[in-house]
Specification:
This protein is an alpha+beta fold and 316 residues long. The protein has 2 domains: 58-181, Nuclear Transport Factor 2, Chain: A, CATH 3.10.450; 185-315, Immunoglobulin-like. It contains 8 helices and 15 strands.
Length: 316
């Protein structure tokens, strides 16, 4: 025993250093094991989320983002099912199957062919393979769908961008169909206003999330050529809602010749308005504030600034 004590005293520093090294090694091994364990748990968690996301996509809420109203469970399930069917077809590159789920109106105004749909829509969202997505009700039949890149599939960690679309569920011929790419839908009006030998028929209205397009048939019954706007004022054609708010047209998107209506003829024209989608707002009138009733006379006038224009109110 004495010899052991003497040996310890003679080699005290070395023994202490050895003990410290051994303890440090043990602690390091435990730390590495804990890191490895946490990493595996995180990996499993990601894989589980990935599997869930691709089998039952996340429905963010059963309430409208705008009104906060709860959506009927039966309606919500049917709407989400058709949206998921469309997206899964896109993921599986069943382009024609996805295209067949679009309404006739959506095809007409957005994608006139399968190839156009693939080039303009599918390739911009689903080009890199699988995507993850969430579905959330905006209001009524319109849903916010957010797409994000599946980094487990692409391995692209540094460019994980999120894209957003507004998809509206529509009943067409007894089937659920979709309007996509922020196109809400078409409302057929077929309402005509007659005044001063001018008939203006609001044939239909195409509504998008950020604007509306009014499709009109304007008939000139007079003996003179008319022009419905001089197209030099961004505020001269506007929509008026039930609160007297005005929503102006995009005059830069119309050339003057499209605004001309010759005597005894009808001109079909589409006018785009800065009127974002709202299910509660009601448009009451479409106003043309600078109609020229004698276009030939106007063209030859030297004082166009003080020309007497005609204001026309169209019932919507």
């Amino acid at each position: 025993m004495y010899n052991l004590i003497r040996l310890f005293n003679q080699n005290r520093k070395k023994i202490i250093w050895i003990i410290l090294i051994i303890v440090s090694i043990i602690l390091l091994i435990n730390l590495l094991n804990e890191i490895s364990k946490n990493k595996n748990q995180t990996s499993n968690s990601i894989n589980n989320n990935y599997n869930i996301s691709n089998s039952i996509e996340e429905l963010v809420s059963d309430k409208s983002v705008i009104s906060g109203d709860t959506i009927s469970g039966v309606k919500l399930q049917k709407d989400v099912d058709i949206i998921k069917e469309f997206i899964e077809n896109c993921i599986e590159k069943n382009i024609e199957g996805a295209y067949n789920l679009l309404t006739d109106e959506c095809r007409e105004v957005m994608f006139s062919s399968v190839d156009e749909f693939e080039y303009l829509y599918h390739s911009s969202i689903f080009n890199n393979g699988k995507v993850l997505y969430t579905i959330e009700n905006l209001t009524d039949d319109t849903y916010i769908v957010k797409f994000s890149e599946d980094i487990l599939s692409t391995g692209n960690i540094n460019n994980n961008k999120t894209l957003q679309d507004y998809i509206t569920v529509v009943s067409e011929n007894g089937e659920k169909k979709l309007n996509i790419n922020s196109y809400i839908g078409r409302n057929y009006k077929n309402k005509t206003t007659e005044d001063n030998d001018i008939d203006v028929e609001v044939v239909s209205i195409d509504t998008y999330m950020d604007y509306e397009i009014y499709n009109l048939a304007i008939t000139n019954k007079s003996s003179k050529n008319i022009i419905i706007d001089t197209n030099d004022d961004v505020n001269s054609i506007y929509l008026l809602d039930n609160n007297n708010m005005k929503y102006y047209f995009y005059n830069a998107e119309i050339i003057e010749s499209r605004l001309l209506v010759k005597s005894k003829l009808t001109n079909n024209i589409s006018i785009k308005f800065n009127n974002s989608y709202s299910s509660s707002r009601r448009i009451t009138e479409l106003v043309f504030s600078k109609i020229v009733l004698d276009y030939n006379n106007y063209k030859s006038s030297e004082d166009k600034e003080n020309y007497e224009f005609y204001q026309y109110h169209v019932r919507v």
